[in-house]
Amino acid sequence: MLTATNDAIQRPTPWQNRCLKLSQWSAIGVGFSLPFSTSATDILFISAVLAYLASNTLKQLYNDQFGSNRNTIALILMGAFTFMLLGVSYTQAPINDIIHSLHKYQKLAIAAILFPVFSDVLTKKRSLLALLVSLFIFMLITYIAYYHVLPISGYRNDPQQQAAIFKNHIASNFLMALFSYFLAYLMIYNRPYRWLFTILWCASTYNVLYLSSGRSGYIIFIVLMLLLAWQRWRLKGIASVSLLLLFLLLITYQHAPTFRKRLQQAVTAVVRHDIHASTGERIAYAKNSLRLIKESPVIGFGTGSFAHQYKRISGWANYNPHNEYLHIGVQFGVFGILLLIAMMLHQWWTSFSLSQPYKAFAQAIICTMLIGFCINSWLMDTTQGHIYVYMLAICFSRTTPKIER
Question: Is residue 341 classed as helix, strand or coil in its secondary structure?
Fold first, then answer.
């Protein structure tokens, strides 16, 4: 009788059920909004968190976040944001820069809170499906815009970004490279619809290599195809797929003007030390950032300090060094860089306990960010950073029993 009474007391109220449903559908909506709208993504993320908080008692919230239902991946994400909050105590950055930095990284804490929302199997599957469908629609619109099927202009009316509509060319090709990986995975493992996923993979790959000017996407595409080869066939797969990729890239270089031009621009910028080209700018950012890290190597200059310190040595306030490791290093020192790498390596190791496809998809997003952080500040960036934490929440939330290792 006592147990039955406790169960009755703990049974959620209609209000809590409605809030939970709102939280789940908001989380699903995030997956659909990510490629299209920053504002919608932010609103849905916050809506999902507030609804989740309203759907639980304080005791349940504590149990989900820190008690018996706690998730180590989520706890570490929350710890990373807490570490950034501690960095406010010794920073000399202006208050606006501190708020700007915390706003950029708040996604870590928000995603950590949302892990329990994805404990519902249906919500997890619908969220992943929403992201895949939105990426498919995103790809269709880029084709429509690029080939002028409809009068849709490129990103900020820039003629060199005709395949970038809702996002700039870096974010757009990041999205398409990731979509290519998802499709390749489905092409290999989903036999009944292999023909469909093969067609879609070819379309997405053509989008990455022929339409887009985002060089980061080229790199991520290659990395993810090699990762998939390793996931499916281990070292033998890497050797075979490397040859296929080499052949594909040679063909692309011969027949894709945008791809060829972007590679030539990168080589020219490095050889001529052209600091006005994007590649040359990145090299200059890296040199200045390393200089700042040497000045305060252990704990850095504190949260939001990058632009303030960069202006001190260069004369202008740069908010983005296009390298997440250096961006973290200036703010939090070598200690911060090591913590970032350790966090992601822990995610990588933990991914081996997941069932498919979450194991493969988690490894894909982790690998993407580990490599992408070398050439862009993707944890800070809105689209890439949100997809990273969103995929972590989907893949690592506890719903699927361990099937293979």
Answer: helix
- pLDDT single digits (tens) 329-339: 999 999 999 99
Does residue 307 sit within a domain?
A: yes
- Residue 24 near residue 116, CB atoms below 8 Å: no
Residue 43, in any domain of the structure: no
Domain presence at residue 84: yes
Alpha-carbon distance of 203 to 194, in angstroms, equals 14
pLDDT, tens digit, 9 for 90 and up, residues 270-306: 888 777 778 888 889 999 999 999 999 999 999 999 9
Query: Does 10 reside within a domain?
Result: no
Closest CA to 314 of 291, 335, 331: 291
User: In Å, how far are 96, 215, 379, 382 from 326, measured between CA atoms?
Assistant: 21, 20, 12, 18
Q: Is the dihedral of CA 310, 315, 319, 321 positive or negative?
A: negative
Residue (of 380, 342, 365) closest to 220 by Cα position:
365
Interacting residues of 148 by C-beta distance below 8 A, sequence separation 6+: none
Asked if 189 and 361 touch (Cβ cutoff 8 Å), the reply is no
Number of domains in the chain: 1
Q: Are 340 and 300 in contact (CB under 8 A)?
A: no
List the domain range (segments joined by +) for residue 301. 73-113+273-405
The whole-model pTM stands at: 0.92
Q: Cα 178 vs. chain centroid, distance in angstroms? A: 10
